Amino acid sequence: MNRLARKLIASIGAAGTVLGLLVALPQQAAALPDGLALTPPMGFNNWNATGCAVDEKLIRDTADLFISKGLKDSGYSYVNIDDCWAAPDRDPVTKRLTHHPERFPSGIKALADYVHAKGLKLGIYTSAGTLTCAKTMPGALDHEEIDAQTFADWGVDYLKYDNCNNQGRPALERYTKMRDALIKTGRKIVYSLCEWGENKPWEWGAEVGHLWRTTGDITDTWAKTMDIMKRNAVLAEHAGPGRWNDPDMLEVGNGGMTDTEYRSHFSLWSIMAAPLLIGSDLRKVTPATFDILNNREVIAVDQDKLGKQGRVLSNKDGRWIFAKPLANGDTAVALFNETEVAARISTSATELGLPERAGYKVRDLWQHKDFQTAGEVSAVVPPHATVMYRISTGADWIWQQPAVTTGLDLATTIPGIPANLTPAGRTFEVGVSATNLARTPVFDPKLTLTVPPKWHARLVRADRRWLLRTGETVRAVYQVTVPATTPDGPAKLHNGLEFGWAGAHKVILGGEQQLIVPPMVPGTVSSLGDLRSAVEHGGYGPVERDMSNGSYRPGDGKPLTINGKRFAKGLGGHAPSTLTYYLNNRCTNLTTTVGIDDERDERQLGSATFEIWADGRKVADSGLHSWRDDAVTLSADLTGARYLKLVITDGGDGVQFDRGDFADPVLTCHL
Question: Which residues of the chain have pLDDT under 50?
Fold first, then answer.
């Protein structure tokens, strides 16, 4: 009995008879991969940007933009339609799906012809259930053969097969039936299993489809993107040519994250050999979005013919190192900083498994520049940013510019409080350093620090080195004073480095560190939800004021309600969430009522803990609370604290529906 058969029997379980199991098993299991999707599919899907607001003009416009913006030349080929494209009912005579008469008046066949004429491919969507996820059109459950043949007749090249309204029938049974139906048509159709990772499709998907979703849906938020990345990163062993882990579509360009975060999103998906399906409306995105999506050096890592998913070498303290071997013998490396302050992230040729050499060429895939290193691979990476390298072992390393890292060091003064919080009136020390990673020495390195206008920087001490050999570092320390009259808001420190190499070359490098001058709470009794925090992070969209956390869009919550009790004031978050406030030793107490919000689905999920921290001390803890529990009151002594931090943590069963409220939070302070 093959692996597919064993999995099918296990998924059906004891509910079926032996005869039923034998009938359910495919008589001939098709061998996959079958020559399709030998590299991760690249293209577009409309759902993240438009949802059901899709029409044939969007698809035609997207195909046009693939040509005019160079996306086709970069490797993007599939233009995919998601849910809501069909009429609400099947044709009463043929039982076939038909196009929605208003959204797609020309029909899917005409649209496929339009896309094919541009040298592109068309993808379509349905669900392995009675209805699709939006419930606007019939699903394919028990209509697999007629739907597959309809798609083939129209010239469809890609099928996304969702998991909604599946009537509780085994996933492997449902997805295998569609696989067999697609094969029977004789048309080459890439088959995407959108099973959400619920039944570990990475263990059986290679015999059923070409790619499989490893998680639930992505949203255009940093927290959700990170959650999905972490779930997908551990599955590297299951990916390969024709069988890909799919952490869902790209959010690049949809506006919920910064361009730095979108570059990280794109880099991480590429190092993980993920499908690259653009999820933004290309008619509306910025030039910066096209720059990210068209980075062919990063795309080449994703599309490498060896087909290896990058593996995590380290992720200590939010400093991630991914490595991915490439077909020509090079190694791609991603250094990703998940934290809120710039961080030095380092690995080595030995740790990467590279052969021993006197030097290596390092190609920066975002700067599009070459450097040399003696073996250390390192960068000072800004918050939420990713540095991506391609490392080769050829002899031409010797002609490249020396790799010299330079960065700022902000000492953490209070555990758990971001080091880049710099209140007005504060004086603090900043370290500036540079390290030569190259085999070639560099000459006369000079470090500088530039502060915002009206701030003061005084050089405390500095190394003076005429020659900086391999592995050597030069340092300087500055004392920086933030004027007491400085308004709250963002500020930046800029570090600079100038050095020479090989006699005639002069190099100027630089970096920056984003600071936050936090607002100070008033010296009164206040509702905490009415005050501005210094910094905050929501696990699923923003932390809301006086409403629950609805979804990932701001202001989409409901009245704060815990086990039927409604509250007019407070903060609505979703695990994991943190909010930090600057108290400046002027507050004495916080009281609040906490619990899981009633905004959840029929599965009655949700559990979390609620914590209050004063500087580095936890001063109140709710313990584990589930959706069944009534609200409880927490009271925290804040005497002498500079910072207050509120935390909603995962209850240990995943973060789904972990919407938590700090209701009626009253902060008592004095002048």
Answer: 1-31
